[in-house]
Amino acid sequence: MNSQTAIRAVPEVAASEKDMANAIRALAMDAVQKANSGHPGMPMGMADVATVLFSRFINIDPGKSDWPDRDRFVLSAGHGSMLQYALHYLLGYADMPIDQLKAFRQLGSRTAGHPEHGHALGIETTTGPLGQGISTAVGMALAERMLAARHGADIVDHYTYVIAGDGCLQEGISHEAIDLAGHLKLNRLIVFWDDNSISIDGPTSLSTSMDQLARFKAAGWNVQKVDGHDMEAVAAAIETARQSDRPSLIACRTLIGKGAPNLQGSEKTHGAPLGDAEIAATRDNIGWPHASFEIPDAVLSAWREVAVRGQAARQAWERRLASSPQRLAFEQAIGAELPGTVFDALAAFRKTHVEQATKVATRKASEMALGVINDATDLTVGGSADLTGSNLTITKGMGTVAPGDYAGRYIHYGIREHGMAAAMNGIALHGGFIPYGGTFLCFADYARGAMRLSALMGQRVIYVMTHDSIGLGEDGPTHQPIEHLAMLRATPNLNVFRPADIVETAECWELALKSADRPSVLVLSRQNLPMLSQAHEDALPSGCGAYVLREPEGPRQVTLIATGSEVEIAVAAAERLHAEHGIAAAVVSMPCWELFEEQSPAYRKEVLGTAPRIAVEAAARHGWDRWIGDNGTFIGMTGFGASAPAPDLYRHFNITPEAVVEAARKLI
Amino acid sequence: MNSQTAIRAVPEVAASEKDMANAIRALAMDAVQKANSGHPGMPMGMADVATVLFSRFINIDPGKSDWPDRDRFVLSAGHGSMLQYALHYLLGYADMPIDQLKAFRQLGSRTAGHPEHGHALGIETTTGPLGQGISTAVGMALAERMLAARHGADIVDHYTYVIAGDGCLQEGISHEAIDLAGHLKLNRLIVFWDDNSISIDGPTSLSTSMDQLARFKAAGWNVQKVDGHDMEAVAAAIETARQSDRPSLIACRTLIGKGAPNLQGSEKTHGAPLGDAEIAATRDNIGWPHASFEIPDAVLSAWREVAVRGQAARQAWERRLASSPQRLAFEQAIGAELPGTVFDALAAFRKTHVEQATKVATRKASEMALGVINDATDLTVGGSADLTGSNLTITKGMGTVAPGDYAGRYIHYGIREHGMAAAMNGIALHGGFIPYGGTFLCFADYARGAMRLSALMGQRVIYVMTHDSIGLGEDGPTHQPIEHLAMLRATPNLNVFRPADIVETAECWELALKSADRPSVLVLSRQNLPMLSQAHEDALPSGCGAYVLREPEGPRQVTLIATGSEVEIAVAAAERLHAEHGIAAAVVSMPCWELFEEQSPAYRKEVLGTAPRIAVEAAARHGWDRWIGDNGTFIGMTGFGASAPAPDLYRHFNITPEAVVEAARKLI
Lengths: 668, 668
Prior knowledge:
Strand content of chain A: 5-15%
Number of domains of chain A: 3
Largest interface: A-B, 108 and 107 residues
Site (Important for catalytic activity) (chains A, B): 39, 270
Number of helices of chain A: 26
Oligomer: homodimer
Organism (chains A, B): Borborobacter arsenicus
Active site (chains A, B): 417
Shape of chain A: elongated
Family (chains A, B): Belongs to the transketolase family.
Domain Transketolase-like pyrimidine-binding (chains A, B): 360-531
Largest sheet of chain A: 6 strands, parallel
């Protein structure tokens, strides 16, 4: 168990790697101490594994951290962020000087509490919420195989390495991820499990008796177990894993806080500074006489050599790409720039259907729009969490991704909403594709953790969420979303689209595709909806978030605001208000609150008008007061739904044109 | 694979059981056909297993469906609800006459699309969202062991049986549940896996290669595999499972839609009616000449005998209870009625701390209140998803639940928020305990699916969610809730409490304990908060949802509304407005929106006042327009958080007394 035993066997190489690992330990404990906040235990425990991985295997180039064929490194145990920041400093990332480590967890520093994608170079994904990293990595490893299938091993040929902790493996999402990875034989995925038998509450034996190796083996993984402080054993395991035809788990038996003489092996090193005395004792214990944040030149040079190896690999790759017949196609894919023909085709599609007054469910409209989109570009990659025939997410000729066969464009994600969302994050982060995936809106609940990360990372992931209200009917309240629109709309940096007809659906698809810096959710009906748009427009009215769909002849007496399937109800109510009561009602369709919020106050005022307002949405009121104002009325759900045919439910819950008419007459 | 082979071996008994199973098949296919909606495949596939289970093993009494020591049956594959309704009709549940089956999935019927607890007698838990049933059952099986440890096997001695499908086992939550159950050796839990190799998209081989038996074995389960149409094999497996010292999985190889000659084995039977022709062919094929919804007397009698056996078991149990020295204690536990001493002690606690002006984080205040509560009653059972030292959910002398030792009151749920929430649902549904469990508020995301079911089922489950805002500081945006309060407040039938000091925290705990018909979420700060309450009151001001904490001397010029840690900011702003600008500002503390919404309009008007309003909450604005009105101002978060010490973050995001003062001056 003592790393020094192994090190003595091959002194020249190992002595240097031992120092390299101790540099990580020292930086981690010193930075956490200075911040008086953070997690030293994991970086110290996994320093040996990380050193072997980076010094001997990983191909990354700190000078060009977004080189497409680089290996991906994911710190799934994100609380050990100082491992990553120490590595980045040691490897010479330009944005990670020692001062950044000294500013660990301080306002404005790049060294955030948990690694954040986009916050510092080379952070492949945001981690911290446990289990997300390993699950996102599955998407990266899948994207790599899919891109290789399209452009060849000469230019796409890299590994995805993950460090995961006990927490990652206990979280349910890990089950979805490893099952999918094992099934699809994602053999470029190599996961190191920091098997230190410690979680926050104490020994892991307080809460689990899982045989993780047997578990991963059951999921079709190659599994190995090593002493995580035996560098040669770790290296041999990585070699073996790289040759496997399956994804690999390497269980690394480690001591948390390794090196701290009095605290190693204890949960006390997990999430708190070691304290000055123990840090001094650790320096003695590991033979690290250097001052805080000081790394000797020899150690730094050893680390910088790793970067040189990566640079050479990157340059060799660039030469291969330059002479590859795939060059243009690859660059277009990696740029993920959609050709204008996609949007031309969507415009023609909208024109055709408004003229034909096509009446379909918006989930069906989405399928039809996807047919156009998927024909016009290869960038889109679809899927569903085992609801393909309900979400209508597959289109003709996509081809299915299958174990060992990655040429297709459609992924059967299985009954795994959370795993799907995380995999889509990984696909988007990897580059080369625009992922979309379907489930019922209600099961956004299951995917929440990863959906939030889509938003936090600003990734173009498109969620196709059908069966969006009581309109789904008989499946009942467990399947009927009530609070879900509020949950999604309250999430920052996420566009939530709820289109009212096939034209708006195509517009919302276009807006989602063009939103390269954020995820989108398309919220779609199960039931048929009539054509409400009245004429073709080149501009996208949905792009303003809300717009006046029906303006009455005289001055407005009431404004009816609705989304999705309830716009039909608002239009019917407006017609009856006019015909039966001589009341002038405008109808506003509001497919996207977020985009409406971004419009000018003048535009918003114009759309909302000064007349009293009524909102109609078959969901919770929460949030609607923003638009209806002090004297407004909301017509929607006040509790959970029920099981019955959809028309019965709309009547039962009083979400009808009659109810709107009555509310309008009361209001004015 | 043909069930008739086994049946021929023991003709008298088995012939009858074959008919009993076919009765389920017929009722399921007929009811789905009549509703033109539903899932016939699972009930037909699992009819043989269900018949063996109910006819030979399960102890339930349809005449007294809530008898505490009954076996629990959970249909985790809830889409197969017709299996349960058919069983209930056949067993003679008074609320399930044949007319209910004829009204399957219709408005007002008890035969909802998915089984709903409280909707019909004997439905132990609401299922439909996949994986919830099996995970809730873990809580039931744990509660059984815990109750048995307290009151003895003489009066607590029952099994929890689960039918789960491929979907249940693919969902991540199943991993959390089976790991916990295996670890705790919950040997009264027996799960039948409907191993039919079919999911909605087609064969399960489209998305999984999991060796489920190896997986469950890795989690410490007893595993068996049988032909699910071989009734004797199923019975033998159940016998073996009942003797195991571990939870048991019985993989039942079945044909989905078994009996339908042209469709069995196909995903086409999963979620759609078979059609009249195939139903007629099925009648021929299984030898069931009876008309739709008609069950011959002989078959019905055979089923009713099962109920008689259950009735006898119940009566024997009642005799044992009547003569047990544990009787009183058991009845108090099962009634879950809290003694008044709990609330007396909480009142004294509040009085002491308001007098001492105790300044603590509300998570600490919660721990202190829990100390009082847990001393005064044994009903509470606590736990945390591996954040015990952060959530502060354990109190002195609780004792820990451990494998084979169920005398303790504290559960180390592991890093399993979703599994914890579902287990708490199961504990509450089982009866005998009031469960509470902790995690960070941000990780409500992970538990959403089960939390929604707490609300839908109206169960007294108490979520202790700490680290409730940017106030958690350095961990950064992945750990800082923004949209979570909106997500929870938008959920029907859920009380969300965000107390401002130790007094409000104790009040909110009392309100949560008294809310027997709904779950509660206690949203608590990491950081210290001052005493804001000014004098002891016997009544609970928090019980009104919101109340005036500070009324200015003159007429109000502005009303500041805040919750939790931001009430301190509002109070400081009010003092400065008065002292520096002579502005009369009231401060409203609003710990619970839901309870405030339930007050009279007059009370609400009085609290909110007519002066302009400013709300302060370190979270998303979404929903706040309800309280601030058209001319109000919101001071809070507009995007994700950041990693830094908490005071820096409050300044950075401009959630400060200065910002409130400035907004107030602008507003008036």
